[in-house]
């Protein structure tokens, strides 16, 4: 992430007709309360998860602040492979130019050929050379809400690690998702905030059924008052430059 005014271009529905549900987003933010003590003391009941056996990769367009980029942090921990422009990736790629959503049907592709993300900014989307980041399996992500300190509570504005974890979770690699999120102090909040949606998506089959589940989830959110407890990490209010997203 390069600033609070920029969101990164992950494989999500903002490049398609899968509209951002503004009413839900506003309700979400109204319900968010500052409970930093409770957030910082939270822990993952299932431990830190399991490191994936498949390749996890990234094209880094250098649009983000290196101090706040979750992809850069994963790279420093040798948890992500850096790809060069023009280099083809054989597995699943989270990309705004995808035409299908990630679904449980993608599990075999991910296990055999890996998972990659494009780290670029929405503010520079028009100058991003997607044609030089090729894959036979580009994918979008369905409606999800960010938990990272920069874009907490915003639909679709996911950091690299959140996008990767979402794809892992939806395809049945829940422990692998937890492993990657565990590298960030706020990571567990992503699964907590999106637990209902992620569970719905992970129970689907193909891209079509994921989109149907998305609409079902958004319709339910519009019709029912959502009283789930939500809280931003302490960094979201302090604006700390030390935390990475």
Describe this structure in words.
There is one protein chain. With 245 residues, this protein is of the alpha/beta class. It has one domain (13-37, 51-238). Helix content is 34%, strand content 9%. The protein has ten helices and six strands; from the N terminus they run H-H-E-H-E-E-E-H-E-E-H-H-H-H-H-H. The chain has helices spanning 22-31, 36-40, 70-76, 107-113, 160-170, 174-181, 187-193, 195-202, 207-223, 235-238, and strands at 56-60, 81-83, 92-94, 100-101, 115-119, 137-140. A six-stranded parallel sheet has the order 2-1-5-3-6-4. Helix 5 (160-170) packs antiparallel against helix 6 and helix 8 packs antiparallel against helix 9. The relative contact order is 0.23.
How many individual domains? 1
**Terminus-to-terminus distance:** 7 Å
Helix content: 25-40%
> N-to-C SSE series?
HHEHEEEHEEHHHHHH
Strand order of the largest sheet: 2-1-5-3-6-4
The beta-strand count equals 6
Largest sheet: 6 strands, parallel
Question: Which structural class fits the helix and strand makeup?
Answer: alpha/beta
Query: What is the mean pLDDT?
Result: 76
Strand portion, in percent? 5-15%
Ranges with pLDDT <50 over ≥5 residues? 1-8, 14-21, 27-46, 228-243
Radius of gyration, in Å, reads 16 Å
Net shape: globular
Q: Please tally the helical runs, counting DSSP H or I stretches of 4 or more residues.
A: 10
């Amino acid at each position: 992430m390069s600033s609070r005014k920029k969101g990164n271009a992950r494989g999500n529905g903002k490049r398609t007709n899968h509209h951002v549900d503004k009413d839900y987003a506003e309700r979400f933010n109204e319900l968010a309360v500052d409970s930093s003590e409770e957030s910082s003391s939270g822990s993952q009941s299932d431990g830190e998860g399991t490191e994936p056996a498949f390749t996890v990769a990234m094209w880094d367009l250098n649009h983000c602040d290196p101090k706040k980029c979750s992809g850069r942090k994963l790279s420093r921990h040798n948890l992500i492979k850096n790809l060069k422009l023009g280099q083809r990736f054989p597995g699943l790629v989270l990309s705004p130019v995808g035409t299908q959503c990630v679904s449980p049907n993608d599990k075999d592709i991910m296990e055999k050929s890996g998972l990659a993300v494009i780290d670029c900014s929405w503010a520079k989307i028009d100058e991003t050379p997607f044609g030089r980041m090729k894959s036979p399996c580009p994918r979008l992500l369905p409606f999800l809400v960010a938990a990272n300190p920069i874009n907490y509570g915003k639909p679709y504005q996911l950091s690299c690690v959140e996008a990767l974890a979402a794809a892992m979770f939806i395809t049945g690699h829940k422990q692998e998702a937890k492993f990657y999120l565990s590298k960030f102090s706020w990571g567990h909040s992503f699964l907590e905030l999106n637990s209902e949606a992620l569970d719905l998506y992970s129970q689907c089959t193909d891209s079509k059924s994921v989109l149907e589940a998305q609409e079902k989830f958004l319709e339910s959110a519009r019709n029912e008052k959502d009283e789930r407890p939500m809280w931003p990490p302490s960094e979201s209010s302090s604006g700390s430059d030390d935390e990475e997203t």
